[in-house]
Amino acid sequence: AEEGGAIISHHVSLMLYRSCKVLTHEIGHLFGIRHCIFYECLLSGCNHLSEFDFRPLHLCPVDLRKLQEATGFSVPARYEALLGLAEQWGEAWEGHADWLRRRLDYLQRQQAAAL
């Protein structure tokens, strides 16, 4: 990925990905969300790096609703904004970008079916 015309290396992309995971996990706690016991999600606890790397960057449906209740965001708008970032920040973000695309596709199909 490019940032200001420079290609973001794999190591920088991975460092940014891991940093965002830690920060967003801790921000979830600031909103009063405890470690997830329902799914393996961003708010799941972990004890070592390999476990941390296995955890996804996204929230499960339970914790997503908790955060949405606290902040009032639109889920599709949030996913679109996150996808824009994930597409810019290099190869460490490709799995998360794919997940966001699948979620957005699902939400669009659900909305179309409701019409």
TrEMBL record:
UniProt keyword Metal-binding present: yes
Keyword Heme on entry: no
A single MF term (Gene Ontology): metal ion binding
Pfam family name, one: Peptidase_M54
Keywords, ordered alphabetically: Hydrolase, Metal-binding, Metalloprotease, Protease, Zinc
Cofactors demanded by this protein: Zn(2+)
GO BP of this protein: proteolysis
Name of this protein: Uncharacterized protein
